[in-house]
Every structure is written in structure tokens, then in C-alpha cells.
Amino acid sequence: MQRLDIAAINREAVQAIQKSQPVLTGVGIAGEVVPRMRRNLILHAGPPITWDRMCGPMRGAVMGALVYEGLAKTIPEAEKLAASGEIAFEPWHEHDGVGPMAGVATASMPVWIVEDKAAGRRTFCTLNEGLGKVLRYGAYSDEVLVRLRWMRDVLGPVLREALAGRPEINLKALIAQALQMGDEVHNRNRAATSLLFRELAPAILRTRAKTDDQVKVLEFLHANDHTFLNLSMPAAKIMLQAAEWREGCTLVTTMARNGTDFGIRVAGLKDRWFTAPAGMVKGLLFPGFTDADCNPDIGDSAITETVGLGGFSMAAAPAIVKFVGGTVADAMTYTQTMYEITTAESEAFQIPTLDFRGSPLGIDLLKVCETGILPQINTGIAHREAGVGQVGAGLIKPPAKCFEDALAAYVDAYCPE
Amino acid sequence: MAAIHDLFTSPIKVINVGLPSFHADLKSQNVPVVHVNWQPPAGGNARVAALLDRVRRWQAQVRAGKKE
Amino acid sequence: MAGPIGLERPGWYSDKEGIGMIVRHRIKPQTYFDSVTLMLIGTELKKLAGVTNAVVGMGTDYNIDSLKRLGMYSDAFATVTPADLVLAVQAADTTAGDAALAAAEALLQRRQAPAGSGAAYTPTSQEGGARVLPDANMVLISVPGQFAGRETEIALEAGRHVMLFSDNVPIEEEIRLKENAVRKGLLVMGPDCGTAIINQVPLAFANVVRRGDIGLVAASGTGLQEVTALITRLGFGITQAIGVGGRDLSEKVGGRMTLLAAQALADDPKTKVIVLISKPPAPAVVEALFARLQNTRKPVVVYFIGADPQTIIRAGFKAAATLEDAALQACALSGGKPLSPLMPADEIRRRAAGQTLPGRFVRGLYSGGTLCDEAQRLLKGQLDEIWSNTPVAGCRALPDPFKSQGNCIVDLGEDTFTRGRAHPMIDPGYRQERLLAEAADPDVGLIFFDVVLGFGSHPDMAGAMAAAVRQARARGGHVPRFAATILGTEGDPQNLRRQQATLAEADIEVFPSNVALVTYVQHLLAPKG
User: Lesser CB count within 10 Å: N end or C end of chain C?
Assistant: First the structure.
């Protein structure tokens, strides 16, 4: 019987999250900066998965990425290659990173670099492609590949130079401000993207890039409200890594989906995934789509909820409640309910409508199991076929089985009979 | 005994876990009270409740050990 | 007060047989509601046209067995758990059955969102409640018994006192919880504790009392209510009234909480007089308790219900003979001079004078268990034979609690009557039915009963009982006499005076204490001439 005081361990873990200071320091090439990245490796969202079990959008993204990377010439060839066993598939989460929706990334893609300097830690995320036909929803048409190449050849280098020429951007402070402006930085990133744009614009203009390219970069960042999602995610990830792999700790440090499975990881159960079939998101669909069009829950973006943003901070973002099919009162209730399963309140992230109460922080596996209250996630819905894109947005909770299995494993590891 | 002395000498403030009418009665007397919309632990899942009990007993032992 | 309001029990009355009826059912997985809410919904459904029976309850073994017994079982219930909500309706046809299920859904919806959208958030766990009210010092627990221990542990761990209203808590668990509480110097009032008053605040079933210097510890809910109400009506007041649960002074529990509470009152500078009420405790417990109390210089009034007062007197304490006597002695000690009862003996005698009962038997219909006991004890010397569902020594057990015989005094708050039905202090339905049945018996000369006021109780019990009495008279034929006692204070939400007037207007003799009521019965029964 080990003498571990869970409450004390969890308190320390939450303190580490509170202390973590994610800053945006630059843009790099995945193959150069992401740990253990290699040419035949494809990173993806969610828990580990094999090609044969991948959902439509993830398969589409994999095929598009193989062509983009030059590993296959055509889509049919890419499909064969993906199934051949020559390509490795690994979760972003096991490479200090995160990816929205399919989350597919390959070696030559540009990635944001987020750092926690005190902890000596770095996390990564691809750059957001915008809405419509995009790789993260499994689209692989020429239009998608052309954009990805432009991102590699123009957007990435311009942002890299711009960031190198200015002080790093404190993402925690930026997210805190965005919460005061109606974002919860999962489904709504409009305020955060605008704040980022204000930070980046002068630096972009100071780069040596052609004016035409500078304008295109600014227009691209401006046109996409979700530009910042690919920064709120690695920021959340790096904060949660501060709590990871502590003996006895019951905090949930990962919630992620690959479109087939939902997986969680717990700080006291190093490297272990607890998975169950991903659920269907309930919410509002764009005109013309039906439930039959929807893919099961997908993406690493639930990392925002894991750190108390997104669905946990719905009360800060009443503007999106209709988008996910609810009322303002619902939004307040979602956030207040999440305090039941968390151990602390964020010092940095405050919710104006709750009298600036800190957002619910530190999901406790034990509390989730005890109360039966599952984490509230609000998220986009992908079309189940590759390449159609987003069909709506809504709310979902993780499968209870993930938490029940994690609890069983925890008991087995720490207090078996 | 200090805890009972404190109770007798400070305003009573109640967490009501269970029947809503007890909450209504206290509220009508302006007693500070919060109602808990109680649900069975672990959503009534006996297997999970048993696992949680094991963690709880382990932690009680750990805390008792600390005080010694 | 055993099984105060029937936690863990389904909500239906099983008095009709459904032959040629259809049964409609529904299961709502992982949906929990408290039993009182479900019982009230069950009662609503039974009022609907075409509905003969309705069961709305959690999927406990007890409820499933009941469904089988009532012929309302379906194989769909085979896999339900106590966390699932089960609805079953027996109706004349499918349309009526489905309408009832729809009505049930609507009622459940209404219960789920009590104050509409934008309402203040209601937490779903004790820890969540503690976040809303971090400096709470008391947790009032009324969850089903199997979960009560867990909630108590959580409260004690957080350093909070507990009033444990829940019943069906195993005695081993009670011992463990109380050991833990004593170590921390915290109160665990209960389990199965219906009444407490802390700092003048009535908790659960309790009356609005005057502030004063009398502190009480009691292992009897209605006993504590009667004594605190009488103290208030006598013009005196109390500091604390601490319920400890009916088993606290048993040999196994060893009076753990009584000892702690008595010590707390001994130490409390505001308490000048201590009153102790319990069934006769185990001898070892008496010894420990008296040893503890001998250290205090405060006067102590002890009422061990039905026990020989000599042991108490020998130990140097005041022995009370009845609940009212306990109140009178405590007030006399508080005021420094003797007191006369609220209704003088002459007045009671005068009321009984010249009265002849229209039948040879008396019937007592009590909602308070300790009051029912007291009535039996006071009458048993005078009557050859008293029948009861809860007989005290010298009285006889009713073969069928639902059917009176001879002179009969029934505790309608006992478990047999509260299965699937709220306690008679909340729901007068069965007592009204029973009163009508007793009144029709030509051998019955008098029906007497208690009306318990205070928080937790029915808003107009006097009105409900008066209505039943009027109905009995309106039927014509044989009509007995009626008498009642009201347990309550001027401050109670039901309004004591109005309740008295309601009974008096229905020609029911009203007495301010149970002892006064029973004395009146004694006079009526005394051989005339």
C-alpha cells in the first residue's frame, strides 16, 4: 500500500498547470522540430488507430497528405500505400502536439511552436487552413493541396520571420482576454484571432516578403475565425503536460478523438490510453445536411475542455450557444456543472458572467466517476465522407467507459485488493 | 468539543442533501442553505462505486497514517 | 420515527385489483428522483380518468417485487437497476395508459426544472454544495439509507456536523460513523432522526420554539417535538434540541452520540437545564451516561420512557413520568418555581363530565410513534386489553395492523403503513380512510388522534382530519365522539390557533398535550356513578 495523498498530489498538479506560461515563439517545419518526426510517419488526432479502422475524413486526410508529401502520386496510389504497412500512424499527443479534426500532419508541414520556458517544454500544432474543403476534414482535391503548398512556401516562412522579429506572444494572457470578449477558444475564436492579428500585422509588414504575399497572409489570417484554434490547442496541451505523469495523480490530462475512438489519459497512469467508441455530436446542422451525414466525434480540440476552456467555459461565450443548439441559461449551467468534476478554478481564465469566477480547472477522474457527470465538450461536426467538410456543430460528452476503465486501471495500479 | 461549541455560537448554515422540502423550509426561515440535487454515486453503477470505495478507504488509511 | 417518509419506496396505493386491465410501462435509464417526488407523481397519476394503479419508483428490488405482486410486471424490468426510473400504469385501456405515461413525463419535467431557465445553479453532489456555501456547518442528509453512510463520511471529513434523517442505515455503519464523529468532536444526529433544533433553527420535522435555557437530547423524534413544543407553550425556551436516532442508547451503539451531546450541553454556558429522553437504554449505557452527567452541576431531567424512575432518582437526577412531565419539570427548574400543566386536571375532568360514549371501545390513530406509546402506557392499567401494531409491554399485537379490534391504539407512522406512501404527518390520506372505517364500527365510542404541526408536516392536518370527521357524521348512522391533541407552537407555519379552531369547529375536543388527551380518555372510560 503506497502512502500517496491524492488530494495533495492533485493540488500540486493543478498548481503546475496554473504556473505554466505558454508563449508563441515561432513557426517551424514539423520534420525539423517535432520529436521523432520522420518522412513516413503520419501524425493524427486522438488515440492510436490503424488504417483499417480509420473513419472517412481521416482516411481522406491521410491520402491527401501522402500526395502533398510526394510519397504518392495519385490518390488511389496513396490509398494503397496507406494500407501497405509502410506508413506509420501515431497520435499527435505522443509527439508533444495536437491536431484539430483529423489532425493529420506530415514532415514538411509548417507548425506553430508554443513554449513553456520555465518548464523547458515545447508543443506543436499545424496552421489552420480555414473552412470548407480542407485537409482536416479529409478533403484531398487539388484546391486543398495547392493551399497546403502555399502554406508551406509562403504562409509558414512569412509567419516564421514575423515572429522572429518581435517579442514572443503570451498565449495565456491572450486567451484570458478573449474569454472576456466572448470566446471560449474552441468553437469561437473570433476575438482571439483578432487579438492575434493585431499582434502579428506590424511584424508581418516588417518581413522581407513581397507586399503581395504579405497582403495574402494578412487576408488569410483575417478570413478565418479559427486561425487561433491551432494556438489555443497547443497552449492547452502544454499547460496540461505540466501535470502529466505524476504518481497517484487522478487528473485527466488528455481527451482526444480520432473519429472512431474517444480516448483519455490520466496523469497517474503514464502513457496509457483508455478508449471507447466515439459518440455522435448532438447539435445544429448546416442547411441540407442530416444526421446520416455526420461522422462520429473527431479531433484533438477537446484538449481545450481538458484545461477548462471550450465547453467548460461556455458561460463566457453566450454568442455561440445557438450555434451548438442551446440557450444562454444552458451555457451557464454547463460551466457551473463542470465545477463538480474539477478540483480547482483557473487563476488566469475568468468568466465575466459568473462574476469573474475562474474557469473550472483540473478534471478529476474520481469526481467524474463519483458524480457520473461527464466533461462537457462543444465541437464541430465533420461529414462522414472524406472532403465534404464541416456540417454543423454541437455538444458531446465522452463515453463513460473511458473513465470507468481508467478508474479500474488506477485501482489496479495503486490500491488493489 | 470545539466544533460543537462553534456550532452553538455561530449562525447555522446548511447543505441539504436529499429531500427538496427541507431546503424550502430552511429557505423560508432565511437560513443560509444550499440544496444538492443528489444523484446516486457513480450513477448507480455498482462496479464503479466499489472501485471508488476502494480508493476512498485507501485514502482514509493514508490520512490516518499521516496523523500518527 | 421509523421510516419517516418512506424513502426507497414506490408511490402507489395497492387497494384495487386490476382485472381486464392493461398495463403500460416505461423505463428511464440512469434517471434519479427522490422518493417523495415520485410518490407525489404516483398519487397524481392515480387521479387520472381510466387509471386504476400507477407505480413510479426507482428500480429497487423492493419496487420490482411489488410490481410482480400487483400484476404490473413486465420482462422489460428484468435488467433495471436502482439507478433507473420505472413507470408502470394499470389502466382501463391503452389510451388512458399512454395518457398517464405522458402526464408522468410532464410532471417529471416540471420537477427537473423547478424555477425555470436562468435559475440559480443546483449542484448535484455534496462537494458541489460545499463550493456554493463553503462555510456551511451542518449537512442535512435524507438520501436512501444505502448511500447515507457515504454522504455522512464526506460531511465529517469536511468537518461538518450531520443531521442524518435517512433510515435503513445498518447498525454497524452507524457505529462506525459515530466513532468517527466522536473522534472529530462532531455531531451525527441520527440515523432515522426526524427532529432537531439547533440555534433555534428547526431541522426536518421540528417546531418553531422560543429561545431559552433548556437543552435537550433525545432518541425519539416526536418525543422531542412534544417536549420542545410544550416548553415553548409554557412560556419557556430552549438552547438546543439534539436528536440522536432511536438506536443510539442501544447496547451496540453504546450511547456514543448521547454522551457527546450531553457533554456539549453540560459545557454550553447558555444551557442551564438538561433534558434527556429515550427508550430505556442498555444498563451499561445508563451507567456511562450517568457517570458523564454527574460531573455537571446543572439539573438534569431524565425520561426513560416506560422505565422504573428509581434508578434515575437514585443517581441524583429528576425522573419524569411522561413527556409533559419532562417539560413541566424542566420549566420549573428553569423558572425556579413549580408550574401547573397547560390544561389543569379540573378542566379535563369537567370536559369529560356527563359524557357517555356511544360505543364500548376507543380507537387511537397516531402519526407520532412516541405519542402512541405514551397513550398505551397511560391507558393499559385501566383497560383490560389494548391492541396495537406497536404494542408496549402489557398491550397486545394486532393480528392485522390494517384492521382494528377492541380497544386499539395504532401508530400509522410505522413501516407497515409507510411503504409506498408518505408518512401520515405529510399525507393524511390513509388516516382519513382509517378514521372513516373506525367511525362506522357500532362498537366504537371514541376516536382520538394527534395533529403534529411544525416544519416538515402537512400544511393543514387539522383541516384534513376535520374533513374526515365531517364526512363520517354526514353519512348518518352510528357516529362516535372525537378528540385530539395538537403538538405545535404559535410560531409554527400552520398557525396553532387556526388549527385549534378548525378542530373545535368540527366538534372535536382539543387538548394541548398528549397526556391531557389521554387523561380525558381515562375519565370517559372511568366507571360512572
Answer: C
